[in-house]
Amino acid sequence: MAIYQITYNEIKTISRTTFSESGLKEREDLQRLLKHQIEIISPDTLVVAEEFGEWDESRRRIDLLGIDKQANIVVIELKRTEDGGHMELQAVRYAAMVSTLTFDRLVDIYADYIKANDFELDAEASLLEFLGWDEKEEDEFAQEVKIVLASAEFSRELTTTVMWLNDYGLSIRCVRMHPYESDGKILLDVQSVIPIPEIENYQVKIREKRQKERASRSGGRDRSRYSIYFNGEEVYNRIQKADIGYSTVRLLDERKLVDQECFEFLREDNSCRKQLLKMKDEMSDTEVQYKKYRVLKDPELIYEGDEYYVARNWGSGSAKRFADKVTAQFPSITYKLHAD
Questions:
Q1: Could you count the other beta carbons within 10 Å of the beta carbon of residue 303?
Q2: Are 66 and 42 a contacting pair, CB within 8 Å?
Q3: I want to staple 189 with a disulfide (CB 3.0 to 4.6 A). Which of 178, 206, 218, 285 is the partner?
Q4: How many angstroms separate the CA atoms of 69 and 46, rounded?
């Protein structure tokens, strides 16, 4: 599709060019510029490495390696060609290679990138701030590896492959970058090709549904649940880990056990690496945006006129720690773990 400039007398066509004709190189220009403004092709992403390739018996390098706000690893590949080549297959190989990265290893990688670029940053503190974490949360880290492909154009073979891979649960975004020339200036038209912006939410939901179905069949994901008992009587049956804090607070409130001592116990708890109870104005923008608390619902505890919400940032280890602490404090409340 052409781009036009509207003047008083006419609608003037702006000529499309190519990166090679414009003298723009892949690494020296596109990669150098985009790593500092990665949101142009990959929103909510922090670049942590450039030309990354720390694996045995391979000289291959990831153009840019990043992490998104959900703590997913992001592999970013750039091409200035008119068809994208076979970059999707290359990127999938890279994604497999980085899928085992731990948070601590990513801190080391980011530290090297900071040093190479002469940034005055602390790697771990910067990562935690970007993610909105108080401390590292391995249970939440790198649950997925996402891929971003940015090229001047994509062949039908490539887009067909990407759509098929996405249909089977991968997350691959294709971003088209068209250069144009106008009055000696190079303009860049950037558009998402896959997923199509108008139906992206629908496509994401379909992909997530299929991921859950596969994980359920393979049994590889922790789907343990808890039942909660009061004086030996089951009150909540097989709740999700994400609901363990809320269900416990609700039980204490319903049984009228929330006195000053109980309230202070709940307010001081940080088993899930988040303060268990928070008022809305105490939450960071990141905690609200990524639903670390249920702020879109009614307050989950009202104590002395103040409204509180319960953290939902639970993993298998933090849920067990919390259950043990609650039972020690309130012996009438016990938990049963269901591993299935």
A1: 17
A2: yes
A3: 178
A4: 8
Q: How far apart are CA 175 and CA 186, in angstroms?
A: 18
- The H-assigned helical ranges of 1-116 are 32-34, 87-98, 103-116
Three-class DSSP category at 137: coil
Comparing C-alpha atoms, which of 114, 117, 150, 145 is closest to residue 42? Answer: 150
**H or E element: which one contains 296?**
none
CB contact at 8 A, 276 and 300: no
Query: pLDDT digit string (tens) for 164-181?
Result: 888 877 889 999 988 888
CB 67 within 8 A of CB 130: yes
Angle at 96 between CA 92 and CA 97, to 5 degrees: 115
CB-based contacts of 82, cutoff 8 Å, min separation 6: 18, 152, 153
Q: Residue 74: in which H helix or E strand, if any?
A: strand 73-79
Q: Which two tokens stand for residue 334?
A: 């016990």
Structure tokens belonging to residue 307: 């409204």
| Closest by CA position to 142, among listed 48, 2, 27, 15 | 48
DSSP E strands in 241-318: the ranges are 277-278, 301-303, 306-310
C-alpha span between 278 and 290 (Å, rounded): 15
pTM of the model: 0.59
Find the Cα–Cα–Cα–Cα dihedral 7, 11, 17, 19, rounded to 10°: 50
- Structure tokens given for 90: 């290359």
| Closest alpha carbon to 292 in 267, 317, 273, 264 | 273
At residue 300, the 3 state secondary structure works out as: coil
- CB atoms closer than 10 angstroms to residue 188: 14
